[in-house]
Design brief:
This protein is of the alpha/beta class. The protein has two domains: 8-277, TIM Barrel (Alpha-Beta Barrel), CATH 3.20.20; 284-320, no CATH class. It is built from 13 helices and eight strands. The chain has helices at residues 18-22, 32-45, 74-81, 101-104, 125-137, 154-165, 183-197, 215-224, 246-252, 261-277, 284-291, 297-303, 311-320; strands at residues 13-16, 49-54, 89-95, 115-120, 141-146, 171-176, 203-208, 229-232. It has an eight-stranded parallel barrel, surrounded by four helices.
């Protein structure tokens, strides 16, 4: 019997998506001081990647209603990181059908970004593959997140992975968008992805949501089964119930290249105050949508209403719609 949780794999890399996923709680209206603090923390803590925001279409998302990190224009990026003289790789996410990628994603030689993460629902995969090819041709490291995998049929997963075998992406990420999956399901998905992508050199990633307070546990399960690209956020900040907390992940990993103390400093200096303004975490409405394998938008809606503590009414309405 082996105990993989007491050693470390040097090929395992950590991505911080605090600003990108966390920005969904406040339309990415962060001040520069917070974004710079997250960047500095990632550098000091030895994190491998920082996802600083989205490459979203300004035709679909009004710049007047969203912060700079919804769009990641080059001037805004360089205002925070300069030429990024560190070893930290910078990433932006591009959602299929929500980005003007031909124009807004510059050639790598003209950008401080290193990685483009293409996020797609399974039915959008043809568009996503075009985006992956475009970003790769421009010189970026490219990865792919298949979102809402908990509602995708096995045959569709297999077909999507068959397509992605041939696409120029270095990682394919298991994404528990609804926070509905349990450890056994995560393990099966990671093994399924590994088998489908065997021989390609592609890595498997994990992006977990915390609706049932399982994001950290499910992340560990994915790591044990061979996932080598791991997402987390400071204090678990993210849309709805949030994500795997970075402070727990780094505390769990045994790689001496990572340092947890700077992350606690970030929580103390920045995240506590932010959480007083914006609520996230495994609140009861998110528990309910997670258990029912539903998108958290309905939970977000009720938490913004006067009925936010009417748990029974919320549950009954969701069950009636099943």
């Amino acid at each position: 019997m082996t105990a993989p949780w007491i050693t470390y794999r040097p090929e395992l890399k950590v991505l911080d998506c605090t600003v990108r996923d966390g920005g969904l709680i406040n339309d990415h209206l962060f001040d520069d001081a917070l974004v710079k603090a997250v960047y500095d923390t990632c550098v000091e803590a030895g994190i491998d990647y920082m996802e600083i925001g989205y490459k979203a279409s300004k035709k679909l998302f009004a710049p007047a209603k969203h912060g700079a990190w919804k769009f990641c224009d080059e001037d805004d990026l360089r205002r925070i990181v300069g030429d990024n003289p560190s070893s930290l790789k910078l990433s932006a996410m591009a959602d299929a059908e929500k980005t003007d990628y031909h124009e807004d994603i510059l050639p790598k030689k003209d950008s401080v970004l290193d990685v483009i993460r293409v996020a797609t629902y399974v039915h959008q995969l043809p568009v996503a593959v075009d985006m992956i090819k475009d970003a790769a041709d421009k010189g970026y490291e490219v990865t792919c997140n298949i979102m809402a995998i908990s509602i995708v049929q096995d045959a569709e997963i297999d077909q999507a992975l068959e397509v992605l075998r041939e696409a120029p992406c270095s990682t394919v990420c298991v994404v528990d968008s609804f926070g509905s999956l349990y450890g056994e399901q995560i393990a099966r998905l990671v093994e399924r992805y590994k088998k489908a992508l065997e021989g390609t050199g592609k890595e498997i990633g994990i992006h977990a949501h915390n609706n049932q307070q399982l994001a950290f546990a499910n992340t560990i399960e994915a790591i044990v089964h061979g996932a080598n690209r791991i997402d987390a956020t400071a204090m678990g900040m993210g849309r709805g119930a949030g994500n795997c907390p970075m402070e727990l992940l780094i505390g769990f990993l045994r790689n001496p290249a990572y340092r947890v103390r700077p992350i606690y400093q970030l929580l103390q200096d920045q995240m506590i105050g932010l959480r007083e303004k914006h609520e996230w975490g495994a609140l009861i409405p998110y528990n309910i949508t997670g258990q029912l394998n539903q998108h958290p938008r309905s939970a977000i809606g009720i938490l913004e209403s006067e009925e936010k503590q009417d748990y029974v009414g919320f549950y009954d309405r969701l069950v009636a719609d099943l």
